[in-house]
Amino acid sequence: MEPEETVYLDALEALVADHRIQLARIADLLDRMSPQQYRSEQAPNASVGAHVRHVLEHYDQLLDDDEGMVDYDRRPREKRLESCPRTAASRIHLIATALTELSNVPVRVRHRPEFGPEDYFFDIDSTIERELAFLLSHTIHHMAMMAQRACQSGVEAPASFGVMPSTLRYWQTLDTESSNRS
């Protein structure tokens, strides 16, 4: 039997693959939720739908080709994404497809600090890869909150849902060490 060939992706391909995995996990969770569970709020603005909308609109801002400018603060805050799991699932599919068409180009990210005049902002140099790394962490962070809200609504998420890959790898080393001691 021949050993399996290891495939190494470049950074952009690996990031896109990671995002598509996380988006598929969110879509799987949505498939198991009723619209009522999706919209259920145990705290203000804290439904699964609110977190999904927030995450998807960050992707939309990155994918919106606005002459290389990304402005995460200018999200439209679409209530339909927050209230309808089917609408969100459709958007997930569109985003997952669009991610495969990205190239690593320079972008500018607009930032509005909390202090200063209301119209004060500055732009930061970045790349698509760097923004995908940020969005991956951001998405997984919100997935952890989605899992909590889903559980409160009676829908269990997998134990790995909303857990960073580095943490999953760490847990695996603990399991391996534990089984080696047995």
Give me the Rg, rounded: 18 Å
Strand segment count: 3
Biggest beta sheet summary: 3 strands, mixed
CATH superfamily: dinb family like domain
Overall number of domains:
1
How is the CATH topology named? Four Helix Bundle (Hemerythrin (Met), subunit A)
What is the structural class? mainly alpha
- Looking across the biggest beta sheet, what order are the strands in? 1-2-3
The SSE order reads HHHEHHEEHH
CATH architecture: Up-down Bundle
| General shape | globular
CATH classification class? Mainly Alpha
Count of DSSP H/I helices: 7
Strand percent estimate:
5-15%
Low-pLDDT parts are none
How would you describe this structure to a colleague?
There is one protein chain. It contains seven helices and three strands, in the order αααβααββαα. The longest helix is centred in the C-terminal third of the chain and has 25 residues. The chain is mainly alpha-helical. The mean pLDDT is 91. The protein has a single domain, classed as dinb family like domain (Four Helix Bundle (Hemerythrin (Met), subunit A), Up-down Bundle), CATH 1.20.120.450. A three-stranded mixed beta sheet has the order 1-2-3. The chain is globular, with a radius of gyration of 18 Å.
Label this structure with key terms.
182 residues; Four Helix Bundle (Hemerythrin (Met), subunit A); 3-stranded mixed sheet; 57% helix; globular
Concise structural overview:
This protein is mainly alpha-helical and 182 residues long.
Annotate the secondary structure layout.
Layout (H helix, E strand, L loop, with lengths): L10 H21 L3 H5 L8 H16 L5 E2 L8 H5 L1 H15 L6 E6 L10 E6 H25 L12 H17 L1
Parallel strand pairs: 1-2
Antiparallel strand pairs: 2-3
Helix pairs in contact: 1-5, 1-6, 3-5, 3-6
